[in-house]
Amino acid sequence: MELPTQYKPEIAVEHVTMQFRRAKDEASSLKELLIRSARRAHKTETFKALDDVSFTVDKGEVVGIVGTNGSGKSTLLKIIAGALIPTGGRVQVDRDKVQLLTLGTGFDMELTGRENVYLNGALIGYSRAFIDANYQKIVRFAELEGFMEEKVRNYSSGMVSRLGFAIATAGDSPEILILDEVLSVGDLFFRQKSETRIRELIHSGSTVLIVSHSPSVIRNNCTKAVWIEKGRLRAMGEPGKVCDAYEKKSGG
């Protein structure tokens, strides 16, 4: 059913359900796996990552999504961005406007930091000319001067995260910005710097979706919050109230 023309949200998530099939009891050895394959005795079960989730996001809203690990938050973001197709329901959004930022996606550990800037930037959609013009800014923001000719396999996890964040946020803010756990990178100083950069993107007028394990991030940056637990929508509304309910239920 189409939404009335007088109300057209930027994002409309309508009764979205997502199911995956997974092994019910995994083989404990290669021998057992081969025997099961020969006998076609694999047992699978259906796992429902999202169950009839619906909400809307208006233009210019900053919406935070909270929930415990495995509740379907990242799956939902990938469906909105078009990386996954839901089992049921639909999402109405202009995906040409969407940029999904997830740290480290598309990194090749056997390439150098410099090579990964160009690889990861291309995956995000940056042109080579853009990366050439912004390369030094990316390196400075990531605080990796002197390390860019090293293979990324030799980086610490914090260095990889800093480089991924610097690449992902080098461009201008898109009309719809989706952030999957990008505010938890590096040490305290770098997290403060990354939050400042994200606030710049948010306040540029974008419509923003943020997934974060930190309710304080949702409280401080969002105009609305959505709580998803075990694939189901539990609450939606004012960030403080939703985060309070989430923390009370999860014991936080």
- Name of the CATH first level: Alpha Beta
Structural class: alpha/beta
Distance between the termini: 39 Å
Elements, N to C (H/E): EHEEHEEHHHEHEHEEH
Q: Can you give the helix content as a percent range? A: 25-40%
What is the averaged pLDDT score? 86
Features:
252 residues; alpha/beta; 6-stranded mixed sheet; globular
Q: Can you give a write-up of this model?
A:
The chain has a single domain, classed as 3-Layer(aba) Sandwich (Rossmann fold). A six-stranded mixed sheet has the order 5-6-7-3-8-9, sandwiched between helices. A three-stranded antiparallel sheet has the order 2-1-4. With 252 residues, it is of the alpha/beta class. 37% of the residues lie in helices and 25% in strands. α3 packs across α4, α3 packs across α5 and α7 runs antiparallel to α8.
In a few lines, what is going on in this structure?
By secondary structure, the chain is of the alpha/beta class. The protein is 37% helix and 25% strand.
